[in-house]
Amino acid sequence: MSTILGIEKLNDQLDADQLDQLDKAAAIHKSQSNIEFCILSVEEKNISIETTQSETRSGKYATQSTLVKRTQEVFEKALPTFDIKVEPMLFLPNPTSVVNPAWLEKKMKEKGVRIKQIAFETGVDRDSVSDWITGKRAMSQIVKAMFYFYLSR
Q1: Are 68 and 89 in contact (CB under 8 A)?
Q2: Are 50 and 40 in contact (CB under 8 A)?
Q3: In the chain, what are the domains?
Q4: 145: Cβ–Cβ under 8 A, 6 or more apart, which residues?
Q5: How crowded is residue 30: how many other Cβ atoms within 10 Å of its Cβ?
Q6: Cα 85 to Cα 149: distance, rounded to the nearest angstrom
Q7: Neighbour-count burial of 88, counting CB atoms closer than 10 A to its CB (0-12 exposed, 13-18 middle, 19+ buried)
């Protein structure tokens, strides 16, 4: 299976070898930077490509111009006579990713909120709230979301 979605749209323009080389170039970007390419349309000498970067382990993300540049680098070699239109889709980190015990303590101090108050207003038992805030218990994504929206208002 190809790492480029919609690569079959290039079957009339490229031979199997060229398609394979294009796919290998895209696979490098997928493995190193979690960048994926999707061919939206191919009309005459125009190609429209959506380039998306998903979450990376390093936490480093490409800018819009970098995504455009990477897309053109991959596709210009195989399609030198084509006008390449790139639609970059930047990665937006989840706002709840900042939630950890240190963030909770800081926000609780800023807002003057106590564990007892959080437990009362959320309906979650006090021991669970305390364990999450002290780090004794791991927080699921739902728990992080609850704390984020509770303490960010």
Answers
A1: no
A2: yes
A3: 4-89 (3.30.300), 95-151 (1.10.260)
A4: 96
A5: 16
A6: 38
A7: buried
For the entire predicted model, the pTM comes to 0.69
Which residues on neighbouring strands pair with residue 39, listed in sequence order? 49
Structure tokens at 40: 């939206």
22 in Cβ contact with 4 (< 8 Å): yes
Q: How far is CA 84 from CA 26, 44, 51, 79, 127, in A?
A: 15, 12, 12, 9, 57
Structure tokens, 62? 């490409």
| The two structure tokens encoding residue 31 | 């493995």
Checking DSSP bridges between strand 35-43 and strand 46-53, what pairing results, if any?
antiparallel
Residue 49 near residue 75, CB atoms below 8 Å: yes
3-class secondary structure, 68: helix
Hunting for tokens 């990477």 — which residue is that?
70
Per residue of the chain (153 residues), what is the pLDDT tens digit?
689 999 999 999 999 999 999 999 999 999 999 999 999 999 989 999 999 999 888 888 899 999 999 999 999 999 999 999 999 998 888 889 899 999 999 999 999 999 999 999 999 999 999 999 999 999 999 999 999 999 987
| Amino acid at position 2, single letter | S
